[in-house]
Write a structure and sequence with these properties.
Helices cover about 30% and strands about 20% of the residues. It is globular, with a radius of gyration of 27 Å. Residues about 5-20 have low confidence and may be disordered. The structure holds acetamide. Acetamide binds near residues 333, 334, 383 and 400.
Length: about 625
């Protein structure tokens, strides 16, 4: 009997080792990856070798990251192009490597590790894949394998809204550090909005003296108290231009372009609070702290007065000098046009230019802006509202109200980035609203993973790629930003980089779990909401509430109670597909998920009256 047990245990250990070895735990999944027999073992003599002086930063970065992951201190050495280090890690620029621009080859054998690319960008991504293979548990072994990889899309973006809440340059750099692990290459900074102007414009000092500050408030966004007379505007901050230059250089070394967004003509209350002559109403307003104001305070730049365009020329001259990326994002979304309709200058502008409505006035505004940006050597990108009244001739479009705007723009031969709110808005909650920090609506990890940026019938050459957007109305800290970003941005990373045919939810989840441990080790916050139960209430034929339960991932057990006790493995176990009817006089439903006999999800507690309200 005892022998049987030993043999069984040994078999189990072998199976686990094999099962582990067969996984290539890389996110996003490489285009071609094949595990080989054996391991490369890191030892005291292992050296990181690079063949080209332009790789000096990358070699140091590789060494520092290995140190932070697993405490190994590896030496770094430069060679002369043809040399290599046959006992080490070789970073090699090689013009003969045939992949897309950001592609690379990674080879791990028992003797050496070689990462090759025709470009430094490709090599950077080869290094990221390699670093994901470094164990975080002190183990020195890296599995032998061959990888040939390249991205599906050239635009793999994330947006951070630094207006609704302010994040320091060091925090933005931390985001850059995290996003590059997963091969994102564009960071859009939403620098201006009604709740704060965050960029120093030297010729317009009030934008940051006044516009960067608002009265301090916490609590539910849009339910907060508006500023009171005489109240000090003490919450906020902004980036001085030197900080931006430093950030841009930091990001460039890591293959990330910073895309600045100056959101106009709407969403401009912070600018108008700084310079009241910018609005059509010419009234004075305060920077908004998250209270209701749309249609009351005038947050739209006047489209009639020439002084607005002189202001924009000043702003974009400085923006264009600060940000080397080819695009500037001008927002263009959700522009409230009520004050334009009452504005004499706007009416004159419409008459003079034969514009029949406010949409055409907005289109006039954006087209002028496009010319202004072109004079500065930049391309204009805007949210999908820039289609209204006619899109500017060369504008690129970022589609957020679903995919429709993106489809229309691509069909009219405009470049498009897909960031539809129903798949790519990272400000939405990721699990049951009763236990998630409140925001607008629901976007679970499994839905993000179902995002496809190229719609049927659209020429894919116009789809630059996709972007996940983290709006921060309900994200007051960087720690919470991390919670909203991960693991949903793992899903986006895979959608933007890996071939479409590679989508495999169970495999993605098993890699996600490995990567969450890596985030933990680096003290990066993330959400575990995909382990929680999904509660689906409905009504039966007699109008009685019934409840069905499910989970995003396979192989979880769900335990529940109606009797005001906490659920666990001694309370009822939900059977798949079962319809739970409500026991007489029950008032509260509670549920928890388990895996392999251990609790894994959070307890969700929800009054039945609230559950009943969810039934459409
Ligand atoms: C947006 O979410 N208003 C672009």
């Amino acid at each position: 009997m005892i022998y049987k047990r030993i043999i069984f245990t040994l078999l189990l250990i072998c199976f686990c080792v094999l099962a582990n070895a067969q996984n290539i735990n890389i996110i996003p999944m490489p285009k071609k990856a094949e595990l080989k027999n054996g391991f490369f073992t890191i030892n005291e003599k292992t050296t990181i070798f690079y063949n080209d002086p332009q790789l000096e930063f990358l070699a140091g970065y590789t060494s520092a990251t290995i140190k932070s992951l697993n405490k190994f201190q590896l030496a770094v050495k430069q060679g002369n192009g043809t040399q290599r280090n046959t006992q080490g890690i070789n970073l090699i620029i090689d013009g003969k490597v045939r992949t897309a621009k950001e592609g690379y080859l990674l080879s791990v054998s028992s003797k050496e590790i070689t990462i090759k690319s025709a470009t430094s960008q490709g090599l950077f991504y080869g290094v990221q894949s390699f670093l994901q293979l470094i164990p975080i548990n002190g183990d020195r072994k890296i599995p032998a394998l061959e990888i040939a990889d390249e991205p599906r899309f050239s635009w793999r973006g994330l947006l951070l809204d630094v207006s609704r809440h302010f994040f320091t340059i060091d925090e933005v750099k931390r985001l850059v550090d995290q996003m590059v692990i997963y091969k994102f290459n564009i960071l859009q900074l939403h620098l201006t909005d009604d709740q704060g102007w965050r960029l120093e414009i030297k010729k317009l000092p009030n934008l940051t003296k006044v516009g960067a500050w608002r009265v301090p408030r916490t609590g539910l966004w849009w339910d907060r108290e508006c500023p009171k007379d005489g109240e000090e505007a003490s919450y906020g901050g902004f980036y001085i231009q030197e900080e931006i230059k430093d950030l841009v250089a930091y990001a460039a070394k890591r293959n990330v372009n910073i895309l600045p967004e100056i959101d106009i003509p709407g969403h401009s209350l912070a600018a108008i609070a700084s310079y009241p002559w910018l609005s059509s109403s010419k009234m004075t307003f305060k920077v908004n702290p998250g209270c209701k104001f749309y249609g009351i305070d005038d947050n739209t730049l006047c489209a009639g007065k020439e002084s607005t365009f002189e202001f924009l020329n000043t702003v974009f001259t400085e923006v264009a000098e600060l940000f080397p990326f080819e695009y500037i994002h001008i927002g263009g979304d959700e522009c409230y046009k009520g004050f334009w309709k009452k504005c004499e200058d706007c009416r004159k502008r419409m008459n003079d230019n034969g514009l029949k409505d406010a949409n055409e006035l907005q289109s006039y505004f954006i087209k002028r802006l496009e010319k202004l940006l072109q004079e500065k050597g930049k391309k204009l990108m805007g949210w999908d509202e820039i289609l209204e009244g006619g899109i500017a001739p060369n504008a690129a479009l970022m589609s957020w109200r679903g995919m429709e705007g993106g489809i229309a723009a691509a069909k009219a031969n405009h470049h498009v980035v897909m960031s539809p709110n129903d798949f790519a808005y990272l400000d939405l909650y990721q699990g049951d609203p009763t236990i998630e920090p409140p925001t607008y609506s629901l976007l679970r990890l499994n839905k993000v993973y179902a995002f496809e940026p190229v719609p049927e019938g659209v020429d894919s050459t116009f789809i630059l790629g996709g972007q996940g957007n983290l709006w921060t109305e309900s994200v007051p800290t960087f720690r919470q930003a991390e919670y909203m970003l991960w693991p949903r941005s793992f899903a986006l990373a895979e959608i933007f980089w890996s071939p479409k045919s590679f989508r495999n939810w169970p495999d993605f989840i098993s890699r996600t779990e490995v990567h969450l441990e890596r985030l933990s080790q680096s003290d990066i916050n993330y959400s575990r909401s995909f382990f929680d139960a999904i509660i689906t209430p409905s009504k039966d034929g007699s109008g009685n509430l019934i409840i069905q339960l499910s989970t995003e991932i396979e192989e979880l057990e769900i335990y529940y109670t109606f009797d005001n006790t906490y659920p666990d493995h001694h309370t009822p176990l939900y059977k798949k597909g079962e319809k739970l009817s409500i026991p007489k006089d029950a008032d509260t439903f509670r549920v928890i998920t388990y895996r392999n006999g251990q609790p894994i999800g959070k307890i969700i507690t929800i009054p039945l009256v609230d559950l009943a309200k969810r039934v459409k």
